[in-house]
Every structure is written in structure tokens, then in C-alpha cells.
From TrEMBL:
Gene3D superfamilies given in the database record: Acyl-CoA dehydrogenase/oxidase, N-terminal domain, Butyryl-CoA Dehydrogenase, subunit A, domain 2, Butyryl-CoA Dehydrogenase, subunit A, domain 3
Name used for this protein in its record: Acyl-CoA dehydrogenase fadE12
Domain Acyl-CoA dehydrogenase/oxidase N-terminal, first and last residues per copy: 7-119
InterPro entries cross-referenced by the UniProt entry: Acyl-CoA_Oxase/DH_mid-dom, Acyl-CoA_Oxase/DH_mid-dom_sf, AcylCo_DH-like_C, AcylCo_DH/oxidase_C, AcylCoA_DH/ox_N, AcylCoA_DH/ox_N_sf, AcylCoA_DH/oxidase_NM_dom_sf
A Pfam family that the UniProt record links to this protein: Acyl-CoA_dh_M
Keywords associated with the record: FAD, Flavoprotein, Oxidoreductase
Family: Belongs to the acyl-CoA dehydrogenase family.
Length: 401
């Protein structure tokens, strides 16, 4: 990857994270992937040096840096060979805490944030549901305040909740006003920062067997009158959708960075193999049929890199510069996520094909990268929904759904 143009802070982050990831070689990630084992040692190493708080306030133990630096951190992790599994092991700790840090009470922040940063608590993000999908405003999981007013009762189901098996806290989005009673569609949802007490009644988790990123668990989470204290509510009741949006654009930047790192890692493996593999008396990389697709993949990654760090910079600047419209940030972050995911897919696919039959072997890692590169194409929002967003919000075309 071309490093010209990055800030001193971003390059410092890259060097520091690289020093940590160096201790976790590809064999570590192969073993975690094949045995579906949580990379707790990796999480602990990042927590030990304070990196889980990279974009959280200094007064709470964070580094006080921006999403630009956090994006570089996530890219460096995936590019090291850790892939999406390495990124997903800490992903929610970085972005899901953003709305909490902005809207949480003093007591919530002082109790929760330092323990997330030092690794005592791990976090997951509970939004997606099986019967609503991308229709976030139609979420059905309810949080009903009990008669005493000191607790809520949560009932419903969440799906694709990463790291729920090892998390102590969940940032939960649940309905506090029935959808048929709200005055506007964005009203009626509330955000909570809840504890996941597996010994309490009303909580059940079931792992989902999946294609890639097997080192980190993905889950269905079931709530059945699960009791949570009223003081777990973050911000105002019924304003959770507005609050959760504060973390959505940040997440798109992080996913874009993760996709870039995965693509660059795959491309590095492919070019190394293309130089080393000799057929008919010459390295296969000498053949334009090999060289040109890899060169094309590199340029796609570089273009997506520019879009990604432009979006992250815009996001960071908008927090102190009111002249930058929220709309502009959303367009940039969604575009970056789309372009980086597509560039990563191209690089990972071509890396496997460059290896030929050996691309199918686990020891060469590129098959793992290919399995994992579908994550940024699908989550947290699909390619098609980003195209819908740009069509409607930028090009002013009629809404299609």
C-alpha cells in the first residue's frame, strides 16, 4: 500500500499496531479459524496497550483519537493476516461505544467505558433481527418499563450478534413505543447498555455456524422478559434511532478499513506466489494473464483507500465543524464502505486464482481471506441498500422500496 499522504498520527498507529500483530502470525489465525476458538489473547494484547479506547475520550482512559486513526488500526489488523476475524474480535468495542460515549450519563460512562478499554468487559451490538433485516425502524424486540419504573422487561430476538458468547455488555436497540403509536417513523426505539447475565432467566444464546470469520462467534440472542435496570437506558427514551445513527457512519469507515486490509493482505500473498511459482521455466507473474489482474486489483484498492480515508476525515471534522452536513458524511461513508468491499472481493478472488490449486489449501491463507471478504459486502448494510441510498439521496431518483 502507498503510505504517502497519511498523517503522522495515522502512521504512528500503524506502526504500533503492527508491533502487536507481529506476535500473532498466520498460524495463530489458522488455528483459531479451524477450531472456532476466540482470539482472546489478541484482544488482551490490544487492551493491554490501551488500543480498544483509540477513539474514546482521554478522561475515560481512551486515546482521544479519531475515526481516521481507528480506521487505520482496523486496516492494519486485517492486513497483518488476522483478517476479518481479528477485526471482529474488537470491532464493536470501537464503534458501538461511540453513541454511548456521546449520550451516556456520567455514571454510565465511568462504570462502563474504562472496563471496556482495559479489556475487563467485551461488547456486542444488538440491533439486527431475523424478521426485519435492514428495516431498522420496524424492529420488534420490546423493552417495556415495569410498573415500579426501576426496570424494563425485554422480549424479542436478535440475530448475527458478533461476540455475544464472550461479551459482558450489549448495546441494545429495542422498541419502547409500539410502531402503530409513533408520530414519526424514527420515534419509538430506545438504546440501552445492558449486562448479559447468563445466570438470569430470560436470556438464551445460540451460535450460528458460518462460512468465514469462524474464530469469532455469531449468534441468535433470545430475550423472554429479561429484566434490565432502568438506568441502562442511554439518552432519551424513544430517541434510540437518532442516537444509534451516531455510530453507523463510524462503523462504515471501520468496515471499509477492514476490507482494505484484507484486500491488501490477499494481494501481497498473490504477488509473492506469482514471483516464486515457476512454470515453463519462468515465474507465473511474468505472464500478463497473472500480472494484469493483480495490477488492476491494486489500483481498485488504492482508489477505495482514498475514498475511505476521505470519509473518515470528513466524519472526524464534522464533529467540530457544523458547516459539514450530516448528509455529506453519510454519502462519503457509505460510498467508502461499498468501494472498499468491492475492491477487497476482487483482490481476494484473484489471489485464490493466482495460487491455482494451492489457493484452495488452508496453509496459504487466501482461501480464508476469500471466505471472509463477503462480510464487508453484506454487513452492516448490503451493497444494494447503499446503491439505493446514493440513487435517492444523491441523484434524486425515485425511491425504489
Amino acid at each position: 500500500m502507498e503510505l504517502a499522504g497519511f498523517t503522522e498520527e495515522q502512521l504512528t498507529v500503524r506502526d504500533a499496531i503492527s508491533a502487536i500483530t507481529y506476535k500473532f502470525p498466520n498460524t495463530y489465525w489458522q488455528e483459531c479459524d479451524q477450531n472456532e476458538r476466540d482470539p482472546k489473547e489478541f484482544h488482551a494484547a490490544l487492551a493491554k496497550d490501551g488500543w480498544l479506547g483509540i477513539a474514546l475520550p482521554e478522561q475515560l482512559g481512551g486515546a482521544g483519537l479519531g475515526i481516521s486513526e481507528a480506521t487505520m488500526m482496523m486496516q492494519t489488523i486485517t492486513q497483518s493476516g488476522a483478517g476479518m476475524a481479528g477485526a471482529q474480535a474488537i470491532h464493536a468495542n470501537v464503534y458501538a461505544t461511540q453513541p454511548l460515549a456521546k449520550f451516556g450519563t456520567k455514571e454510565q460512562l465511568e462504570e462502563t467505558i474504562p472496563k471496556i478499554i482495559n479489556g475487563t468487559w467485551r461488547t456486542c451490538f444488538g440491533v439486527t433481527e431475523p424478521n426485519t433485516g435492514l428495516e431498522t425502524l420496524k424492529l420488534k424486540t420490546t423493552a417495556t418499563k415495569n410498573a415500579s419504573g426501576d426496570s424494563y422487561s425485554v422480549t424479542g430476538q436478535k440475530i448475527w450478534i458478533t461476540c455475544a458468547q464472550v461479551a459482558s455488555k450489549m448495546i441494545l436497540l429495542a422498541r419502547t413505543t409500539p410502531v402503530e403509536e409513533v408520530k414519526r417513523s424514527t420515534h419509538g426505539l430506545s438504546m440501552f447498555c445492558i449486562g448479559l447475565d447468563r445466570d438470569k432467566p430470560g436470556l438464551d444464546m445460540r451460535k450460528i455456524k458460518k462460512m468465514g470469520g469462524r474464530a469469532v462467534d455469531a449468534n441468535e440472542v433470545f430475550f423472554d422478559n429479561y429484566q434490565i435496570p432502568a438506568n441502562t437506558l442511554v439518552g432519551e427514551e424513544n430517541e434510540g434511532f437518532r442516537i444509534i445513527l451516531h455510530g453507523m457512519n463510524a462503523e462504515r469507515c471501520l468496515l471499509a478499513g477492514e476490507a482494505l486490509g484484507l484486500g491488501y493482505a490477499a494481494l501481497e500473498r498473490a504477488t509473492q506466489y506469482a514471483n516464486d511459482r515457476v512454470v515453463f521455466g519462468r515465474p507465473i507473474g511474468q505472464n500478463q494473464g497473472i500480472a494484469h489482474p493483480l495490477a488492476d486489483a491494486y489500483m481498485k484498492l488504492e482508489a477505495a483507500k482514498l475514498a475511505t480515508y476521505h470519509a473518515a476525515r470528513l466524519y472526524d471534522t464534522s464533529r467540530t465543524d457544523s458547516s459539514i452536513p450530516f448528509h455529506s458524511v453519510g454519502v462519503a461513508c457509505n460510498s467508502a464502505k461499498y468501494l472498499a468491499a468491492e475492491a477487497a472481493f476482487t483482490a481476494c478472488e484473484r489471489a485464490v486464482l493466482t495460487h491455482g490449486g494451492m489457493g484452495y489449501a488452508m496453509e496459504y491463507d487466501v482461501e480464508r481471506y476469500l471466505r471472509e471478504c463477503f462480510v464487508p459486502r453484506i454487513a452492516p448494510v448490503s451493497r444494494e441498500m447503499i446503491l439505493n441510498y446514493v440513487s435517492e439521496k444523491v441523484l434524486q431518483l425515485p425511491r425504489s422500496y
